[in-house]
Amino acid sequence: MIQVPFRLPSLGYAETRIYIILLLVLNECGEQSDEFQKLVAFARQVLRRPWKGPGLDRNGVAEALGTVPPSVERALDLAYRIAPILTDGARGNPRQVKRFINTMVLRLAIAEERGFGDDLNPTVLAKIMLAERFAPEVYDAIARGSAGTGASEELAELEAVVRGDRQEPKDAEGGKKKDTGSDVALEASALPDWPNLEWAKQWAMIDPSLAEYDLRPYVFVTRDRRSVFGAVTSLGELDELLAKLSGPPLQVRQAAAEVARLPGSEAEQLFDALRAKATVAEDFSEQPAGALGLAVICQHHSFLQPSLIAFLKGLPVSKLGPWAVTGWTNALTSEDVKVEFKTLLSEWAAQDDNKPLQVAAKAARQMGRGGERR
Known about the structure:
mainly alpha
């Protein structure tokens, strides 16, 4: 039997938004509900020519259903907020969109059963899950920053800058002071030093602002992210290459040519999958499967190098083997990430919890070969 791959066209923004609305209403009202059945019929009509008209908007829904029920109103509002980033992040893959929505609904149900459902705002949860899914470094920074009080100072600064909530400076007479180059530099310096900062700026513009919320229950309910969005996610045609990059060194090196030909979006998908696989390893004294693959991807797709540094920084220092010190020379080529890696080596050399790692890091620094495979 000959199998011919058939790739469905990716969903666009309008289609993704409609799909999100239908999934949310389905989860809340059920498949046999009158609201869902009428909404499906109306959505099919809209999707015949999605380029015409406003799509699945409130006026159309009200005309189709006679009114806009609260469940549909909530779905319309949430879909409007998250659809743009979810469209780009899921790359039009309906399975990923459905997994995102189903995971969110499941987490809300778990919170309700455990008695803290009232502490969660679905829109806030959806926004945090966007970071969790598409920018793990941003999510990790939020989780760390909000662990104590529930408020992340870095996130508050980011939102204040990109949303224009910072207090404008006044001149001596109490009027608004004109922007100067130093003011712009001050705003830039106030931004957190996160990987994927440009993505984070776009994400921070999504309502609601998170600065006013206690983020601890949201971090708590999303703590299982590695099992939800990690190794269980299929990459379709990239699965074979993922297996190669998770294999022994020779196999990884042989896959380098394929990696070099990948478009940036697919390279990023592979990177995320390998990072998820490496991060859930039980033993970090030896190099986890996928780590070499990460290096090969970054060698050919330099925009992912800051994410590689973030991956290394996130590894448990007390359990980390000397392997982490070497093998990154070809993967870390930009000057900024080289400086970051040298700083990380210094931190590993200064700590006392892991002697083998400390010795290896000190040796690498003294030889001036930080990151080079010996």
